[in-house]
């Protein structure tokens, strides 16, 4: 499981989680959008950008990087891309911050001198998940992020679900958090069946977004194979329970 990519999926669904980590979160955190931004006239894309709502005052942009592999070039790339984006969008934002999330200090780049002007600034915050304290001491949002590095992940996931069901009164928020826990568990224990994951977590995951997404991906893969075997669009659509439009699009743009 690539845990950095899991974080980006989590931030897309629950962008306000990032602001549980930062020292001075902006107002309207629930209205921020998490995006992957292409930097014009360059060959790169910034994977983690939190864009403020149009109505925000001040308009503060957050650049986020989740790093679960050793990469000595991380700071060179991250700060260069962030500053280039700001240069191309002058006047659009009132302020900016960078947040870098590591599981532990051991994965941080060794060279901290070259970029000390950034690293020593109050606009850059480095988070080490293993130093945030025990799950019982943390808000539920931080518990979610710690779950990706937990040594006893199944046990901690079940405990977190039980805590959410007891403490969280907002049904929509509760369902969102449970969906994220399920997403992490499904990716971590990819060899387990749905029934085994349900038994491990103590809940029914059939209606969760991650299960529906995976089920849809399985249908698309099956449809692609049937198309290659020569079945008609209508036969494939009926056989795998997809719309004719989806199968037609798949036939016109087959997966590589």
Describe the structure in your own words.
By secondary structure, the protein is of the alpha/beta class. The chain folds into three domains: 1-131; 149-205, no CATH class; 211-252, no CATH class. It is 45% helix and 13% strand. It has ten helices and five strands; from the N terminus they run H-E-E-E-H-E-H-E-H-H-H-H-H-H-H. Strands 1-2-3-4-5 form a five-stranded mixed β-sheet. The longest helix is centred in the C-terminal third of the chain and has 20 residues, at 209-228.
Low-confidence segments: none
* Portion in beta strands: 5-15%
| Number of structural domains | 3
Calculate Rg over CA atoms: 21 Å
Q: Could you describe the largest sheet, including whether it forms a barrel?
A: 5 strands, mixed
Structural class: alpha/beta
Strands, helices and their partners?
Blueprint (H helix, E strand, L loop, with lengths): L2 H11 L19 E6 L6 E7 L8 E7 L7 H15 L6 E8 L13 H4 L4 E5 L11 H8 L5 H15 L3 H18 L5 H8 L7 H20 L4 H8 L3 H9 L4
Parallel strand pairs: 3-4, 4-5
Antiparallel strand pairs: 1-2, 2-3
Helix pairs in contact: 4-5, 5-6, 8-9, 9-10
Keywords:
256 residues; Flagellar assembly protein H; alpha/beta; 5-stranded mixed beta sheet; RpnA; DUF2887; 5 strands; single chain; 13% strand
